[in-house]
Every structure is written in C-alpha cells, then in structure tokens.
Amino acid sequence: xxxxxxxxxxxxxxxxxARAVEAGNRPFGATLVKDGKLLLVAENxxxxxxDCTDHAETVLVRRATAKLGAASLQGSTVYASGEPCAMCAGxxxxxxxxxxxxxASTQDISDCFGPPVLGAPCAEVLARxxxxxxxxxxxxRAEAVAVLRRAAQGSRGARN
Amino acid sequence: xxxxxxxxxxxxxxxxxARAVEAGNRPFGATLVKDGKLLLVAENxxxxxxDCTDHAETVLVRRATAKLGAASLQGSTVYASGEPCAMCAGxxxxxxxxxxxxxASTQDISDCFGPPVLGAPCAEVLARxxxxxxxxxxxxRAEAVAVLRRAAQGSRGARN
Lengths: 160, 160
Known about the structure:
- Chain A is of the alpha/beta class.
- Helix content of chain A is 44%, strand content 18%.
- In chain A, helix 1 packs parallel to helix 7 and helix 3 (56-68) packs parallel to helix 4 (86-95).
- The mean pLDDT of chain A is 95.
- Chain A binds chain B through residues 50-53, 58, 61-62, 65-66, 70, 85-91, 93-95, 115-120, 124-131, 159, and chain B through 50-53, 55, 58, 61-62, 65-66, 70, 85-91, 93-96, 115-120, 124-131, 159.
C-alpha cells in the first residue's frame, strides 16, 4: 500500500528517534514540514547535552528559529515520534505551529519508562489555547513504540 | 509589616520583569532559590533573541543547568512574576523544581495582552505529573500586574 505524505514525514521522525538512542539520548525524534517540504529533522539531545529542555520538538523549534528564521515554523506541521509533553506542546504553540502529529502516546511512553511522567495529554495542554493547533495522534504508533521498547531495554530508569 | 522570604524572592522576580520590559522584551522575570539562597535571576529574552522559547522560567532552567549544573534545580523553588505557561511548567518539571510560586495569573496576563494565549493553568498542566511540584499562586499579584499593565500600554499586540 502506498505510503501517505503524513506517514513519510512520520517515518523520518521515527528514524530520528532511533538515531537519538544510538547517540545515547532519549528515544524521540521530530520533523518540521511546511508547504509539503521537509525543513528540518531533530532528535532528543538531553542526555548528551545535560539540558532537560533538549527534547526533540523543543530542539526543533529553537534550531528552526536560529537556522531558518521564526517564520519557518508559522503554520507548519511537526511530526513527533512521541506525543509532545507540555513543554514541547507549549514551545510549538508559541512558535505558531499549525498542526502536530504524533506516533506513540504519552501512555505508551509512560508504560515503557515510568516516572518522571509529566502526564497531561497534548490535546489537553492545548485545549484552551488561542489559536488552537490541530492535533492528530497515533500515526505509525507501532513503529514508534518498537523504538521506545528497544530503548527501555537498554536504559531502565532514564528520564523521559 | 515584615516581608516574608517568599515575598523577598518574588519581589526580585517582579523587578526582573520590569528590567525585561526596559530591555525590549516581554514583562516576565523569575528567580531560582534553593536552601534559602538565591541562585539565579532570569528575565524574558524572547523579543531580543527572536526565540519564542526564551520565556523567563525556561531561560532560568537552561542557564542554571549551564552555569550551576542540573543539580542546582533539583528540589529548588522558582518564583515567577507571571503564572508559568505549559512550556515553562514542563521545563521546570523536567528540571526537578520542587515548588513553583507565581504572582500574576494566566488570566491577568491574558487580560492585558489577549491572544495568542496558551491558557492552561499551571496547576492543570502539572495535575497528572509524577512527581508533582507544589504550586502557590498570586503572591504579590498586584505588583506584578502593575508591570504587565505598563508593558501592555507600551506594546499592544506583542506576544506573551
């Protein structure tokens, strides 16, 4: 069956999540797409950098701003291998991201790694926001969860 | 009447919020306190930097990590002149901040500046978190709102 564009961009985010694990970081990746074009791929960097704000989506927002300009994020779509936490959902909201698509759910992530768990679903965090980004979940969930499980086997107890 | 320690640290955060306005940024400041000692003061930097993640509390988390080490945030208290948005609440959660105290509410901020508004109250964002930081609101609210109002008069329509 032909892969949709959404699946193509999500597959790249999941590949980035696997690369993050290879690099010694947490198993999350994200892609930035605008007007049908891939602008940036980012991975979680928080273990190597030692900075807990270096989740894939927040890295993506900061790096896109620095490299491509803030306008690159306005009205864009971000594909995240894991459901964005409140920090990342907020960063994408302030950046003007128009649509957020995720694969593995917050519950999937929590099932693999346990606490600390921030817990609030992305849609709940953004429920009162104005404007309100569109949120689509669980695209290629099984593929993303497979990466989470491999990472969980390698590093029990690491932070999400 | 004698000023409590909480009021003293919050007053410094509100002073930082006023300095942020002077520097051309959004009217928010934050202080990091641990074991009764002031470790760091941060201001919103998002207009001058052009990076929408440069809210005072997120700047504080990143700078404390870089300058003082990640352990400086574990079990600390952060005083924020404005109720932390979801991004900042998440950043503080991941950093292990144990207590969050804020002055002006999300509603106060929204009343001054309007959209974009992220909206979710800090306590709601962290309601399902494990561990759950303690959150105390509205300390020196009037003083913080006075800075917000002055800033709103100077720059209608700027982003929060």
